[in-house]
Amino acid sequence: MKKITALAASLLIGVAVQQTANGQTKQSNSSKTNKTTTMENQSAQQQIEKSLTIYFDALNKSSVEQAVGQYTADGVFMPTGLPTASGTAELNIAYTNVFKAIQLNVKFDIEEITVADDIAFVRTQSHGTQLIHATGQKTEELNREFFLLKRENGAWKIARYMFNQPK
Q1: Which UniProt keywords apply (predicted)?
Q2: Mean pLDDT over the full length of the chain
Q3: Number of domains in the chain
Q4: Which residues on neighbouring strands pair with residue 110, listed in sequence order?
Q5: What is the CATH number of the domain that holds 93?
């Protein structure tokens, strides 16, 4: 009986040691995976910021081509008080109409970027002025924006975009 108890104890200790070693290996691998994931997310966030900077620049330059170029082919633009535009053809019409109506001079602040695989959620705020072409009046412009981006062929593109005014 003592031999069986000693053998069982040895097996339990051996299993415990192996599990501890495996756990350390898993933790080590998990740590490496977390570092890789963190680096990948940082790289994705930098690419997203670059893509949105190009988009924001397009808005301030009233560049339809540049703005629409930051969207996926099936992208959706949901502006406050205007119809939803879906797909490249409708996006071209929507941005042409927006830029005919106003000239933006705004600064954007990225408040949050959340990345999961090839999808990202981005929350921003913008502030500045808009010139209303019909009246020549300059007004304060303040919005909060929400973007859903997709990575397509290695590039982050806007899949969905909506905004509203906080006041």
Answers
A1: Isomerase, Signal
A2: 84
A3: 1
A4: 124
A5: 3.10.450.50
